[in-house]
Design a protein that fits this description.
GO terms for molecular function: methyltransferase activity. The longest helix has 18 residues. Helix 1 packs antiparallel against helix 2, helix 2 crosses helix 5 and helix 10 packs across helix 11. By secondary structure, the protein is α+β, with helices and mostly antiparallel strands. It has a domain of 100 residues: TATA-Binding Protein (2-Layer Sandwich). Helix content is 27%, strand content 28%. The strands form 4 sheets. A 10-stranded mixed β-sheet has the order 8-7-6-9-10-11-12-18-19-20, sandwiched between helices. A 5-stranded antiparallel β-sheet has the order 13-17-16-15-14.
């Protein structure tokens, strides 16, 4: 379908409005990044995407509506220049945007990240003119285009594990005049042909810092990435790489999350009822309830990351009033059930070689005793002996082996 001749004019106007809004919110303080936002046509990188429908489908599954210029030009263009994440792929399947269809449920596997977060990532990584950068997770290519506009295409390398996604991103980038180095590659291993880099910025999350990334950064260079885990706790860290192959940096504040690198995604663990059926022994009174890590608060967001360092292979599911933890590696399990007296207490049953909830409670006790410190007070140390999260008033926590 041929678009009206004023599409570029409308898009330019919306880009200016978006840049003004981001600047008013303090997201766009750097004039060079503001110029990039006003120049890069985001709509060229999102020919189609999904937005949530107003109603759920059968069995309560979320409803996702496709949005393209052919279906609704106004809605498509307005969403493209909103500060919103636009889902472009579910379950690794590339949609046919010529004949898109509604879908129900599914796990998002690619998206165009909201522009404010894209800019926050580049600015938090302290990217400057003259730097060479490796971006992990090309996605739609919009973030890559912003980096090219700021640094020049010659300074930008971007890798994407999904070849179909990279093909679409490459077409959009080249169509806009950007020529970064692009490669189908797993971000766990960086991209040795372009190394060493001044900066590495990851648009996906990892359970631990991949050693290859540390090895591919110049001494004094920086790595910005999001750490995650199977309890869906997240933390961002800005690491500075030293000359001896180690790295260290503080956690950053906020509640930012990214999709997991596909190799680090949580495995399916089966039916929670099957795990609960194998528990023996009498329940005990829980010292802490699950709301400490499940509540929709910044503290709970931070705590999920801390406690999953103590039980890195545990996953959580809620069925009715019962909260289940299952560890597919050790075979351990725990259930938390309301005690029924109306006081908000919980009772816990555990089984297997690892006492999952007891391990969580030890972290929560130590956290409370330390005065409930925020993420910015923690330092991540990466060295040959492992990856350790350190705090002056807390026991050392270790990340899973990368």
């Amino acid at each position: 379908m041929t678009m009206p001749v004023d599409l570029d004019t409308d898009a330019a106007r919306l880009r200016t409005v978006m840049a003004e809004d981001l600047a008013a919110r303090g997201t766009l303080d750097d004039p060079a990044w503001r110029a990039a936002v006003q120049k890069v046509p985001r709509h060229r990188f999102v020919p189609g995407f999904y937005l949530p429908g107003e109603e759920c489908g059968g069995q309560g599954l979320p409803r996702w509506q496709p949005v393209t210029a052919a279906l609704d030009r106004g809605r498509w263009l307005a969403a493209a220049y909103s500060d919103a994440t636009l889902i472009t792929q579910f379950d690794g399947d590339e949609p046919d945007w010529e004949n898109p269809a509604e879908r129900y449920g599914g796990a998002p596997t690619s998206s165009s990240t909201l522009p404010s977060l894209v800019l926050r990532m580049w600015t938090d990584a302290e990217v400057r003119e003259g730097h060479t950068v490796l971006e992990i997770g090309t996605g739609t290519g919009y973030s890559t285009a912003l980096a090219c506009e700021r640094l020049g295409s010659g300074g930008v390398t971007s890798v994407e594990v999904d070849p179909h996604r990279l093909e679409r991103a490459a077409s959009a980038l080249h169509g806009c005049g950007y020529t970064p180095t692009l490669a189908v590659a797993d971000g766990l291993y960086g991209y040795w042909p372009g190394a060493p880099f001044d900066r590495i910025v990851a648009a996906c999350s990892f359970r631990a810092v991949p050693p290859a990334l540390v090895a591919q950064v110049r001494p004094g260079g920086k790595i910005l990435l999001t750490l995650s885990g199977w309890l869906y706790g997240y933390a961002r860290v800005l690491l500075t790489v030293t000359g001896d192959g180690t790295a260290e940096g503080r956690l950053l504040g906020g509640t930012v999350s990214f999709m997991s690198a596909r190799a680090h995604a949580a495995p399916a663990f089966g039916n929670p009822a099957h795990w609960a059926a194998g528990l023996t022994g009498r329940p005990r009174v829980a010292q802490h309830g699950p709301e400490r890590i499940t509540a929709a608060t910044e503290e709970s967001f931070h705590l999920r990351f801390l406690v999953q360092s103590a039980v890195p292979d545990a996953q959580l599911a809620t069925v009715g009033d019962v909260v289940h933890l299952a560890d597919v590696v050790s075979g351990s399990a725990a259930t938390l059930t309301p005690d029924g007296d109306g006081g908000g207490g919980w009772r816990v049953r555990e089984g297997g070689p690892v006492r999952l909830w007891e391990s969580v409670e030890r972290v929560l006790d130590a956290y409370d005793a330390a005065g409930r410190p925020g993420p910015e007070t923690f330092t991540l140390c990466v060295h040959d002996g492992g990856q350790h999260l350190r705090h002056p008033r807390l026991p050392c926590l270790s990340l899973p082996s990368p």
